[in-house]
Amino acid sequence: MQLDHVLTQLERAQLIRPAGETEYIFKHTLTQETVYEALLKTSRREIHRRVAQTIEDLFADRLDEFAAALAQHYAEAGDDTKTLAYSLRAGDVAARVYANLEAIMHYDRALELVERNADALSVAARQELFLKRGRAFELCGHYDAALANYIEMLVYADKHHQPAMELAALLARATLHATPTPLQNLGLGRNLLAQALARARALKDRAAESKTLWNLMLAEYFAGHQAQAVAYGEQALAIARELDLREQMAFVLNDIARNYAAIGRLPEAEAALTEARQLWQEIGNLPMLADNLASAADHAASFGNYAHALALAEEAYRISQSIGNVWNQAYSRWVMGDVYLEQGEFDQAIIALNETMDLGEQAGFVVAAWVSRLLLALFYGRIGMPSRGIALLEPKTQWVRTVDVPFKALGFGVLGYLYLLMGDPARAEQFIAEAKAEANLDDLVNFARILLALTEGELALSRQDYARVVELMYSLLDKYRTTKLRLFKCDVMLLAAQGLRAQGHLDAAYAMLSQARDEAQTVGNRRTLWRILADLAEIEDIRGNREQAQALRAQVREIVEYLAARTPAELRPAFLSLPKVRQCLSN
Q1: Residue 1: what pLDDT?
Q2: Of 236, 262, 260, which Cα lies nearest the Cα of 250?
Q3: Which of 4, 180, 455, 488 has the fewest Cβ atoms surrounding its Cβ within 10 A?
Q4: What helix, strand, coil percent values describe the chain, rounded to 5?
């Protein structure tokens, strides 16, 4: 039966009506289903083929737009060759607009077709298909599915003796284990990467060698070996530049920046982030552009440029939302929450950090989910609610013990601090000891060492071991001078001044507090500034400078009232009940 004849009959029976020159609409869905089921299988196939061919004829210059429909029609028509071509095309179209679940659906269909006809795709095209599907899984946060995809790719490559594909699969799998995903396992990741590096060099595959060295840089960073990470990164970058692999250059630059920052090479860190951002914009890779902006925001916050950090993080968040990239939504909101805390915008910080916890767990972004939880727990402790902070962290303690990232030590350091505030120094020491066993003491950027030293200092202060307090804080301040980092610097200077004052070194304590005040005012750190001013007022009282003391307390009251107004109502009583807050407000 000819299609034209069928359509004429259906129209005469008033079952369909024209909707343009080449389109018809059924008057009822049930009618459509009944007519379709009544057709012979051969007729259905012919209809789908004719529809697909008509679309190709009419919209030859817009086939990307109709690729998904064409793949479906040709599948129903039984044309595997055309179905495969349009499935691949539809998958790429969906991936370009970050519709990753849709891309996965099309790539799945393409791989099913290739399984039925091994000659349908070249080895190189099949390799590319596996990698595209794996990346789409990763962008959706489906890391187990991504791993299964790469293992399937590895098995195929081994069975068909395809060393290049085997190397690509090995590398893709190693990346999952070397980076902070739920599958992170640095021992396994580094072992796989060592194998990949040997194979890349044996195959003289310089591009794969660069990619492997980049992944080794990531693994060494998360293992806490920043100098070795930089060495790997610079080798990877040199090869990428030599071969003009612009995307690979962007990946390496994006990640080497945090290693440069960790060892105090700030100009190189900033230059790397800037060059990577230009490359991502040129390439049009929006997920990585958002990642770069969030990384730059994190960098700016760590070095005290809060306004710039917020601007970068907001742009990263906007881009991430527009493409549905949950990972970088978590990353950018984490940075915003951190900055809001330092600025004293506690209500906004709590919202941002709670969002980060949810987004981080949704995306499988372990570090964001954990660090946002830590920052919130630390905040609860500082406003007089350490038990609430412990309740937030302890359910996740066993979980974080399995994570091979430097932030594990940070978590134990925060728990130690909270238990100290709870009046349990023995439990605090237990967590400090566990944290010290994990911490990398050379890297301040991940701030594990800083929080750990602050907790040790508070413990020493409670035991009246003032010399130890000063020793710990001065050691950190030496590192601050080397790295130019400003994160938690005010807290370190405040604790150093408290140790000096307790030893009777009033002038030295006053000088340290004055530097701390300048630092806090420069970066806009209200969270610590009021405590610095309160201690300065106490020293002015001791010196008999009542007028100066009162002026300082007036500033303290103004800041405390600002902070209280931005503390959620349910938390405000705890903050206002802090002994130092009560003292400042009563004077």
Answers
A1: 45
A2: 236
A3: 4
A4: 80, 0, 20
